[in-house]
Here is the input.
Amino acid sequence: MEKLKIIGGKRLKGLVSVSGAKNAALPILAAGILTEGTLDLTNVPYVWDILTMLRLLFHIGAEQVILRNGKVAIRIPKVQSSEAPYELVKTMRASVLVLGPLLARNGYAKVSMPGGCAIGERPVNLHIDGLKKLGASIEIEHGYIVARCKKLTGEEFAFERKTVTGTENMIMAAALADGTTKLVNCAMEPEVADLADALNAMGAKIKGAGTDTIEIEGVSSLGSASHRIIPDRIETGTYVMAGALAGERVEIAQCNPSHITALLDKLGEMGISVKAGNENVVVDGTENYKAKDLRTSTYPGFPTDMQAQYMALMTQADGASVITETIFEKRFMHVAELVRMGADITIDGHNAIVKGKTALKGAQVMATDLRASASLVLAALVAEGETVIDRIYHLHRGYEKMDEKLKSLGAHVEKIK
Ligand code: EPU
Here is the structure.
């Protein structure tokens, strides 16, 4: 199994370009199910979760699923299979994103029920409630969500709590429903707005995506379109934090700084110099910055997907900080590994108390999920000596060429078997 060896202590400098957003590309690829036409996408990141989604679309009936230089064309003239099998869903729970589109296009979908994962339980009850409200009948049979409908009908549905993929599933289902759907208490993440932009380019009539109320006027069919995926805001934030921790001066290019305002504001409060342009961020690393408490929240608040990386940053801050995770109850798997490297962190329920600044020492550590892996990489960049991170397939799920990007900034990073 592949591991990542990092020798800490190198100061990073130079420019790193951000890839397209995994979590925008996943639902937009699934939206390819809604049309017989061709969806031409650019800026699609070459990461394992995207390859899993392409495998799933191939299984469903997509003709062309080759991703090259960030480009992929999806065309599904006929749905060959309305099933998302367990084998694929168990490796990526975002496979549930095909539920709404399959139901809308075909009147039937059988999608393996996603199980729990390393960051928490992750139920999909709200996806199911919403689709039922549009007229689908849904049963759970032998571990599968089996959904049927004649034709979905526009309705008003209020999410009990904000859910990103739940909002996306509902938008896609409602795009081909009879009449108008109003969704209330929607996730406001930029990835939801990007999905709506792609669907509107295909001929959908969606208003309000990116706010908490979305209106979708159903249309009878959707056609071909071209769309460029937005930059990955979590990858952007990860390199911004790498620059803050280990950088001399790092420029993060081809990004959208307005999507990471919560992080940039925090870094400013700590005394770290970050300058945001229209499409870039320049960070000057410093060894002296203040610890700041953090509470994760839905967009535009501080994303849970950057909490682990932020914790690595706090191990080197002056003073103590309390990091409160409000989205996924178990998302502290990185704590034990950071502690093995010398960090002083204790967990109390949803809070992690980090006491800085502690000297980190290279160690053998284990990646447990995608963002936890990124936090171990950040910690390793400033640790004394050699860190070997095991199970880096987690990193490949969502970060494109992270080792090469860090190397180009001067880090001592090497993939080993
Ligand atoms: N929830 C429910 N019922 C539902 C759906 C969600 O109770 O039917 C709860 C969840 O258990 C969680 C909260 O609502 O406590 C929010 O979950 P959400 O549904 O928003 O998460 P998701 O759509 O499954 C997406 C991202 C995650 C990211 C979360 C939160 C994609 C493909 N995944 O997941 O990304 O952490 O939103 O922002 O968009 C990652 O990229 O590393 C990652 C895990």
Summary: DSSP finds 14 helices and 23 strands in the chain.
